[in-house]
């Protein structure tokens, strides 16, 4: 296969810019390199990410820092049980002009931005959660019969607390599937926490700086789609996603009583995209099987449901994904 020299040069330039972006993010969001890489991969792939972690782990700071580094306009919505769809999308108000005439005027909600942070998204009612569905999928909203385009690019980074579930509304499967990745933000290890203490409790703190502009980010997203994917990687993606569907011909027998439902084609599309993005983030021109292995859990963990029996045994979704990867590796061998 002929090598596209222009593509190679463009990817080389992009990887250098991405290295600068990661360095800039890590000036404020110390450590957690895998989290930074996964969220950047989601944005480079043109998608949205759900950040799951306990309070105080820096999720809000990460989103704010990414907005600065990527040069994006940002807005934040604190989801609460009394939040209404109009609080996110906007609403029409009746204006009375000096001559006495009246006309409706639309006031844009916070969704009209480029990077929307949906903080504690599962605290809002299903009706309010669903207000984001069209925005996340189509990049536009329909209000009073009129289609209104959102910012370009448009990304949603939502946060969720996995522990405190009282007074929350679990996200429906349709909305979970709109998130390209679920990024689990865990406690830092001792060395990372030490670095956080030293970096954030002194007189001076690290500051992020812009590396991309919105137009440059859009161009980077287009370039990611042009990166080639080898047949081996393509088959690995198909094998893994199809193996996670209970009852499918490719699925191991044990999945029938372990899983209730599995990932659809959107999961395979997501894995295809983020393996390319991870390759670019690591300075490579094409994804490898290592990229598939690294991004499998973030892509699949919110698209798989364990059966009651599996949950009673104490199984976890991540453990099931690892088992599926092991089974796929044995079959390939």
TrEMBL record:
UniProt superkingdom? Bacteria
Which parts of the sequence belong to the AAA+ ATPase domain?
A: 45-189
Under InterPro entries, the record lists:
AAA+_ATPase (IPR003593), ATPase_AAA-3 (IPR011703), CbbQ/NirQ/NorQ/GpvN (IPR050764), ChlI/MoxR_AAA_lid (IPR041628), P-loop_NTPase (IPR027417)
A GO molecular function term, named singly, is: ATP hydrolysis activity
Q: What is its EC number?
A: 3.6.3.-
Q: What class of enzyme is it?
A: hydrolase
* Gene3D superfamilies membership: Magnesium chelatase subunit I, C-Terminal domain (1.10.8.80), P-loop containing nucleotide triphosphate hydrolases (3.40.50.300)
| UniProt keyword annotations, A-Z | ATP-binding, Hydrolase, Nucleotide-binding
Q: Which family does it belong to?
A: Belongs to the MoxR family.
Name-wise, this protein is MoxR-like ATPase
Name the species this protein comes from. Answer: Paracoccus aminophilus JCM 7686
């Amino acid at each position: 296969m002929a090598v596209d020299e222009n593509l190679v040069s463009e990817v080389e330039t992009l990887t250098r810019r991405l290295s600068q972006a990661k360095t800039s993010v890590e000036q404020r969001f110390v450590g957690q390199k895998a989290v930074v890489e996964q969220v950047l991969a989601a944005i480079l792939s043109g998608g949205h990410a759900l950040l799951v972690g306990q309070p105080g782990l820096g999720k809000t700071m990460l989103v704010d820092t990414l907005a600065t580094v990527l040069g994006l306009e940002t807005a934040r919505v604190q989801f609460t049980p009394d939040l209404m769809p109009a609080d996110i999308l906007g609403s029409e108000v009746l204006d009375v002009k000096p001559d006495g005439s009246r006309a409706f005027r639309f006031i844009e909600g916070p969704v009209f931005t480029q990077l929307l942070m949906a903080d504690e998204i599962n605290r809002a009612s299903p009706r309010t959660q669903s207000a984001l569905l069209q925005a996340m999928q189509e990049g536009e909203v329909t209000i009073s019969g009129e289609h209104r385009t959102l910012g370009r690019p448009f990304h949603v980074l939502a946060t969720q607390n996995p522990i405190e579930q009282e007074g929350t509304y679990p996200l429906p499967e349709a909305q979970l599937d709109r998130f390209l990745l679920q990024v689990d933000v865990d406690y830092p290890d001792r060395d990372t926490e030490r670095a956080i203490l030293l970096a954030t409790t002194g007189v001076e703190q690290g500051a992020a700086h812009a590396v991309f502009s919105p137009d440059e980010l859009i161009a980077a997203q287009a370039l990611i789609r042009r990166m080639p994917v080898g047949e081996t990687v393509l088959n690995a993606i198909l094998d893994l996603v199809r193996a996670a569907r209970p009852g499918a011909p490719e699925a191991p027998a044990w999945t029938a009583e372990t899983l209730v439902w599995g990932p659809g084609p959107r999961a395979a599309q997501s894995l295809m995209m983020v393996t390319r993005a991870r390759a670019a983030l690591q300075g490579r021109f094409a994804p490898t099987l290592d990229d598939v292995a690294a991004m499998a859990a973030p892509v699949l963990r919110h698209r798989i449901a364990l059966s009651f029996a599996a949950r009673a045994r104490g199984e976890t979704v991540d453990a099931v994904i690892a088992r599926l990867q092991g089974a796929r590796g044995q079959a390939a061998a």
